[in-house]
Every structure is written in structure tokens, then in C-alpha cells.
Design brief:
By secondary structure, the protein is an all-alpha fold. It has two domains: 75 residues; 42 residues, no CATH class. The longest helix is centred in the N-terminal third of the chain and has 68 residues.
Length: 152
């Protein structure tokens, strides 16, 4: 049986042109993906640049405010501010200052705490008789907690 050669030629031409066309289309699609990714990256880099400039401005402002605050804490400035508002104040003595820890409790070993504890012990022991120091009842501890007018 005899074959038709024309059909064979057209089929080879169709398959070879389809391969080239699919290669061109896939290349075009990859080129479009590249340009879209490139434009997105450039827009992100512009946003990063804007944010970095904003960060530099904020850091400069922070430095200026820290400097201004440090200038306000100078003793001469404090005395000027006190006289401006008519306040007669002086710096506290060491036995008047209590430094607190980050947990919100006084730091141990301070002169002010020793003085306060010593005063509270001597005051509470003076009000209790020597005989009742060892035996404490609920009424004596409750009476010590009350103030002068009976209010806690």
C-alpha cells in the first residue's frame, strides 16, 4: 500500500514549528516574570530607603532630646527652675534616699532603710512591756497597727 507523503511533510513541519513557538512563548513568559520581580524588588528597595531615612531622622531627634534632658538635669538648671516656680527645696541627704530595685522593693543595705528599721523597732518595743515581748496576742498586734485616732 502506498503512503501519502504530503501528510507526512505537514506533520513534521507542524511539530517543529510548535516546538519553536512554545520555546518563544516560554521565554516571553519568563521575561515578563523577571521584569515583574525586578520592579517589585526596586519598589521594596525604595521603601527601605525611605524607612532608613526616617530612622536616621528619629535617631537624630532622640539624640537632641537626650541632650536637652541632660541639660535640664544639671544642678544649676534645677536651681533656676526651683526659683522660677518659687519652691524652696534642697537635695535630700543620703539617709533620706531609698533606692528601689526593678522588682519594686527597696534595695538592701541602704542607710535610710537601717534608720527606718531601727526607728520602727525601738518605737514598737517601747510600747510593749518586756514581759509581753515573748508572748504576743492578737489584741496587742492589732492595737499597735492602729494610729492615734484609731484609724489604720
Amino acid at each position: 500500500m502506498r503512503r501519502n507523503k504530503r501528510i507526512k511533510k505537514h506533520s513534521r513541519f507542524a511539530t517543529s514549528s510548535m516546538g519553536v513557538a512554545s520555546l518563544i512563548v516560554s521565554g516571553f513568559i519568563m521575561l515578563m516574570i523577571f521584569f515583574s520581580i525586578n520592579s517589585r524588588c526596586s519598589s521594596i528597595s525604595r521603601e527601605i530607603g525611605k524607612k532608613e531615612k526616617e530612622l536616621q531622622k528619629l535617631e537624630a531627634e532622640l539624640t537632641r532630646e537626650k541632650t536637652r534632658w541632660d541639660e535640664m538635669k544639671v544642678p544649676e538648671r534645677l536651681s533656676i527652675a526651683l526659683t522660677k516656680f518659687g519652691l524652696a527645696m534642697s537635695a535630700p541627704r543620703e539617709d533620706q534616699m531609698v533606692r528601689m530595685t526593678s522588682a519594686g522593693v527597696p534595695a538592701p543595705g541602704q542607710l535610710a532603710l537601717r534608720r527606718m528599721k531601727g526607728a520602727s523597732r525601738s518605737g514598737s518595743m517601747a510600747s510593749v512591756s518586756p514581759r509581753s515581748r515573748s508572748v504576743r496576742t492578737a489584741t496587742t498586734s492589732a492595737s499597735r497597727r492602729r494610729g492615734r485616732n484609731g484609724v489604720r
